[in-house]
Amino acid sequence: MHVPDGFIDAPVSVAAGVFAAGAVAVSLRGARRELDERTAPLAGLVAAFIFAVQMLNFPVAAGTSGHLMGGALAAILVGPRTAVLCLSVVLLLQGVFFADGGLTALGVNVTVMGVVTVVVAYAVFRLLTGLLPRARRSVTASAFVAALVSVPASAAAFTLLYWIGGTTDIPIGKVFTAMIGVHVLIGIGEAVITALTVGAVLAVRPDLVHGVRGGPAAPLKLRVDGALVDAPAATRDPEPAAAPRSSRGLWITGLVSAFLLAGFVSFYASASPDGLERVAADQGIDEKAQEHGAAGSPLADYGVGDIANARLSGGLAGVIGVSATVVVGTGVFRVIRRRGEEPGTAPHDRDHENA
User: What CATH number is given to the structural domain containing 121?
Assistant: First the structure.
């Protein structure tokens, strides 16, 4: 749902930009409480993984496709404030270098895709994990529902902005119905990807999943002689802070996966327009769409301009995008973490959940 230039008028685009900038500023400050030596590189990896998976449009209906937004996935893995920054990095790079999402609509895209999805998904996830038993299956199910809800919520947010500042005169009821209808279907794909990814990380490194840290102190369960019993308190103690487990293996695996998805699998993605593009064409929202300011970029439309072979061009563009995202993202999150450790900065408990 990358909103192009020309869908939303200038005043509302500016207002959305101000709101997005404020959300990023708040997230920059709050992310210091979510990031540590292990999770700062993970946050950069999450941003790169989201970039890669967003290249994989999947069919959801006749002539319509969808792709991961990533707000739920990022919020659950690295925390809601860091997640807003992850999505902002991805959207900025996509807009500037790949001509995906309008430059004047960057604030709209950060608001709709980066803030709304994160806030809604994390609120739903925390609510469900607080009600359900503390087990891997319930966490994965909570991630599924949170991701599913976040996508139509994002579509509703776009509809609201369009109602206030849309550049074409289309009945808002028709826009709302069309947007929610197609994005519920896209939300199912989002939910599957999110649940599978969260479940995979839980299986190997549950200590790195932000969404299950700092929650209610419900006892973990062990199966003894066929019955579930509370784990002894000693087994629930966190690992000593002086000897944290390395996340290098997970980081390498995730990065290789992102390169494979963007560099190879993306060639087989659906070429059909995504949900917003389809609704815009059907309802006439795109009548005043403007050419992207970065349309002349050598990486525009996720291809390398001087390479004629479509498979090679798209794959190389994907690899470049993943590389740029992981470098920029990891650099940003390392700086944030170090700023949080500077003398005079208020100390924070890294495991304290303050969402």
Answer: 1.10.1760.20
